[in-house]
């Protein structure tokens, strides 16, 4: 497929015009960033892994009736997605204390929360994506009350799905973030899960050892990020445990 006009380039992805109206080609980069892009690196293969893993999660969500923007994977680094008007919020679901929550509230990392806690951050890199309340969201018109009800429902359904999928392969879903977009079918508007779901946007810990299998490996210099993401992909069956050697094709007379 011919490469089309670039629409947007972010820290981890590039968006291009899709082949049909209302579609976008989402390209996954190998760039890794942390601490609001203060720490940067290029991690070979990260984009390929995130493309495959996001496809896996979005496809699984669609199968249980959770609407999202994924249409199909195009190649190792690109997928075709539905264009959506992104709500300017990051929606964070926390099952265990970690990261900024531990710092803000003085909770030991790994403390199980009494129930999943949903937080909202205003999407603005220049401000560091600040934490906001539903009062802020309503006052500034970022989302309506009906939108917020739908966003909460989507977030908790994603949490139920991801928690179960990860638990089955010995991984604890500590927290994750998603983005939500508005799509229009005629005059009817609905909200769908957008952006990506990958180890870039989740905290994933091995249940037995506590080993981190997410971007904290990069943030905290804990080893190879590619190895961590590969481990997640292999456990989920997205990648084989042992690659099969590729032999030369044999001509049959």
Structure description:
- The structure is a single chain.
- The chain is α+β, with helices and mostly antiparallel strands and 253 residues long.
- It has 2 domains: 6-82, Phosphorylase Kinase, domain 1, CATH 3.30.200.20; 85-224, D-amino Acid Aminotransferase, Chain A, domain 1.
- It has helices spanning 46-63, 99-105, 134-139, 145-168, 216-219, 225-235, and strands at residues 6-9, 13-17, 23-28, 31-34, 39-42, 70-73, 78-82, 85-86, 89-96, 112-122, 131-132, 171-185, 188-194, 202-206.
- Strands 8, 9, 10, 11, 12, 13 and 14 form a 7-stranded antiparallel sheet that branches. A 5-stranded antiparallel sheet has the order 1-2-3-7-6.
- The chain starts with 5 loop residues before the first strand and ends in an 18-residue tail after the last helix.
- Residues 244-253 have low confidence and may be disordered.
């Amino acid at each position: 497929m011919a490469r089309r006009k670039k629409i947007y380039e972010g820290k981890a992805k590039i968006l291009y015009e899709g082949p049909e109206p209302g579609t976008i080609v989402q390209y996954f980069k190998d760039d890794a960033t942390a601490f609001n892009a203060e720490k940067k690196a290029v991690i070979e293969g990260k984009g390929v892994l995130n493309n495959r893993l996001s496809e896996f999660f979005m496809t699984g969500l669609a199968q249980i009736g959770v609407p999202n923007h994924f249409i199909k994977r195009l190649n190792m680094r690109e997928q075709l997605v539905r264009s959506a008007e992104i709500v300017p919020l990051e929606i964070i679901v926390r099952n265990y204390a970690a990261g900024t929550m531990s710092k803000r509230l003085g909770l030991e990392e790994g403390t199980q929360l009494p129930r999943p806690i949903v937080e909202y951050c205003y999407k603005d890199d220049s401000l560091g994506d600040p934490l906001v309340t539903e009062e802020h969201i309503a006052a500034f018109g970022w989302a309506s009350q009906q939108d917020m009800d739908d966003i909460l429902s989507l977030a908790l359904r994603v949490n139920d799905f991801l928690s179960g999928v990860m638990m089955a392969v010995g991984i604890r879903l500590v927290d994750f973030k998603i983005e939500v977009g508005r799509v229009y079918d005629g005059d009817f508007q609905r909200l769908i899960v957008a952006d990506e779901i990958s180890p870039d946007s989740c905290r994933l810990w091995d249940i037995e050892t506590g080993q981190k299998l997410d971007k904290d490996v990069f943030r905290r210099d804990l080893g190879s990020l590619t190895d961590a993401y590969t481990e997640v992909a292999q456990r989920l069956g997205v990648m084989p445990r042992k690659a099969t050697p590729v032999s030369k094709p044999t001509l049959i007379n």
